[in-house]
Design a protein that fits this description.
The structure is a single chain. By secondary structure, the protein is mainly alpha-helical. It folds into 2 domains: 153 residues, Arc Repressor Mutant, subunit A (Orthogonal Bundle), CATH 1.10.10.10; 75 residues. It is built from 14 helices and 5 strands. It has a 3-stranded antiparallel β-sheet. The protein has a two-stranded antiparallel sheet with strand order 4-5. A hairpin with a 5-residue loop joins strand 4 and strand 5. Helix 1 runs antiparallel to helix 3. The relative contact order is 0.13.
Length: 321
C-alpha cells in the first residue's frame, strides 16, 4: 500500500476558507458539481476530525455522498479532483479505506477571502474575524448596479472571472431580462449579452456528421440524425467522446441482441445524450480497478448503498454495519 503523505497543518475554520476558495475558483463550473461535492465532503470531514489527520472513506461510503452511481464514476471524479490540484488521495485496498485531504492549488491561492455576490457591500467585514481580512466595501451608488456608469464588474466578480473564463454567466442581466425585471441590476450600463458558440461551416459539419454516421451501427432516418447532430454542433472534443462511446456501446449485449434490434435510432441517441451513459463494471474485479472495498465485498458496488460505517465484529475485523 502506498505510504500516505504527511497531513499539512491547518488554520482554524480552514474548511470554510477552502469552500469559499472553491466558489471563487468556480470549481463546480470548471470541473463539475460532483467534484465540488466530493471536495466539500472531504473538507467538512476534516473539520469534524479537528484537522488532526487525513480522513478515510471506503468507496461505498463516498458514493452516496457525492451522487456517484458506480465506483467507475467515483474513480473518475476523484481522478479529476486530483489532477486539478484540489485533492490528495492515498488508495486503500480490501478492508483498508482510502485516505483523503483537500488542498488549495496555487492557481486559487491568491484569492482574497471576501464574498462574491450581487451586492458585496451588504456585508460588514469584522476585522477581528479569524479568516476575513478585507476592508469594508464602498457604498452602492444610487443607480443600482454598484458601479459607476459603464462599469459592469466589481473587483470580486473580476477575480472569479480569472478562473472561470468566458463560460461563467455574468451576474448582470441580458437586455431581454432587463426589459422584464426591476431591481438593482436593471441599469442599462450593466447589460451584457451572453456569447454563443458560433456554428461550424457547413463543410466542417458535414465531415463531422460523416464520422458519426460511419461509426453508428444503426443507419436509419439519416435526415433526422443530421438535424439532431447540427443542433448539437459538437466541438472536436465532444465528437471524440461521442465516437468513443459508440465504440464501447456497440460491443454491449443490448446492442448485439437480435441483430441490433434494440440499438436506439441515431437521432434519439444524440437527443438523449447517450454518450454520457457509463459501461457496467459488474464483470470486473475490484482489486484490478484499485477500489477501496469493505471486507467481504466480492464485486464493485454499482448502486450506491445507504451511508454505513464499518463496525468491528467479534473477531476484530471490520464488517458492514
Amino acid at each position: 500500500m502506498t505510504a500516505a503523505p504527511a497531513y499539512p497543518p491547518r488554520p482554524a475554520y480552514f474548511a470554510m476558507k477552502f469552500i469559499r476558495a472553491m466558489v471563487k475558483a468556480c470549481v463546480a463550473n470548471e470541473h463539475g458539481p460532483q467534484i465540488f461535492t466530493l471536495l466539500a465532503t472531504v473538507a467538512a470531514t476534516e473539520d469534524s476530525a479537528k484537522y488532526l489527520r487525513a480522513v478515510t472513506f471506503y468507496d461505498s461510503q463516498l458514493m452516496p455522498l457525492v451522487g456517484a452511481q458506480s465506483q467507475d464514476t467515483l474513480a473518475r471524479i476523484r481522478a479529476k479532483a486530483i489532477a486539478a490540484g484540489w485533492l490528495t488521495y492515498t488508495p486503500g485496498r480490501k478492508g483498508v479505506p482510502g485516505s483523503y485531504y483537500v488542498q488549495i492549488p496555487a492557481s486559487a491561492a491568491t484569492f482574497t477571502d471576501g464574498p462574491v455576490d450581487e451586492n458585496p457591500s451588504e456585508y460588514v467585514v469584522d476585522s477581528s474575524a479569524p479568516v476575513r481580512t478585507q476592508s469594508r466595501q464602498k457604498p452602492i451608488p444610487p443607480h443600482g448596479c454598484g458601479h459607476k456608469p459603464g462599469e459592469c464588474a466589481d473587483a470580486t466578480a473580476t477575480q472569479a472571472g480569472r478562473m472561470c473564463g468566458p463560460s461563467l454567466p455574468s451576474p448582470s442581466p441580458s437586455p431581454e431580462e432587463a426589459a422584464n425585471r426591476s431591481g438593482s441590476l436593471a441599469h442599462g450600463d450593466c447589460e451584457k449579452k451572453t456569447a454563443k458558440r458560433p456554428l461550424k461551416p457547413a463543410a466542417a459539419t458535414d465531415e463531422a456528421f460523416g464520422r458519426f454516421w460511419d461509426a453508428y451501427p444503426r443507419r436509419v432516418n439519416k435526415q433526422k440524425a443530421r438535424e439532431a447532430f447540427t443542433k448539437l454542433n459538437p466541438t472536436p472534443e465532444l465528437l471524440a467522446t461521442i465516437l468513443e462511446a459508440i465504440a464501447w456501446q456497440r460491443q454491449t449485449h443490448d446492442w448485439k441482441k437480435n441483430g441490433g434490434e434494440f440499438i436506439p435510432y441515431p437521432a434519439s441517441w444524440l437527443n438523449g445524450k447517450r454518450w454520457e451513459d457509463e459501461p457496467s463494471v459488474a464483470a470486473r474485479s475490484p482489486a484490478d480497478l484499485g477500489y477501496d472495498v469493505l471486507p467481504g465485498e466480492a464485486k464493485p458496488v454499482t448502486i450506491a448503498p445507504p451511508m454505513c460505517l464499518p463496525t468491528p465484529s467479534a473477531n476484530g475485523k471490520a464488517v458492514r454495519a
